[in-house]
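Form 7-S
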Amino acid sequence: MNRTVITFLFIALTTYHGLAAEEDGTNRSFYVRLYGIAEQFEWAEYLDGSTLLEESGPLFGVGGELALRVAEPWWVKARSEVFFGEVDYDGAIQNSDDGTIIPYDSTTEYAGVQAEGILTRRCQLNSDVYIAPVCGLGLKMWTRILDTEMTDKYIGTYGYEENWFNLHAIIGGNGGIVLDDGVEMFATVEIIVPVYNEILVDLTNAGGPDDVELEPEREMGFYLELGMNLGSITVSIFHEMMNFGESPLDKDYNSVFQPKSEARIIGLKAGMVF
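Output:
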């Protein structure tokens, strides 16, 4: 799936490069943006106001955006990203004999993909400045494997696998301004409104079932990005927050739940724009 997305973006780039190059500034009707991603990822889980665990570390990925003006002033934009990495786990385990809590440090592996489709109405304030309200839908899926390392063949003693599915609406806006010598600054502010959350948990490594289904409560998040295009080079910084409320007990076994969870991401995107 990830290779398919990257291949599609590459084909779009090579096919339409000439079309995009014909127009300058914010008046162009088409653009492609390809970039690498480096981010600092923070994950935390809470129960009854106390922190159960924290994870932190770098994730890396690649992504692309394809935007097209379909009818003045309406634009459609598709964005897709893949990411992966290994972060440090700082939590605890419960002694099965006496119930005592023992601190436990390990690593957690992440790998995922997200795709978004956005409709926007661009308001051109003048030839060099625009603002645009946006709305759309997004899908983010990732695998989280606890107590493992990317170089290991097996999950550790206390490890298990979670597969997350998050369908969300996007509401917000962006804007841009072209400065001298073709330098363009842009900004994006988006509210992430969850529509559906699901986790599929495989606990076989820990002696449990492999088909636990959980539905964390929906809580809003946000995405912020500030960047600059210098000719064909694009660089930006971004901040993303995802929130998940505590889930009910699973319906099949009535014994497993997902605590209140949150992700905080600060990162850098750098690549090419055409």
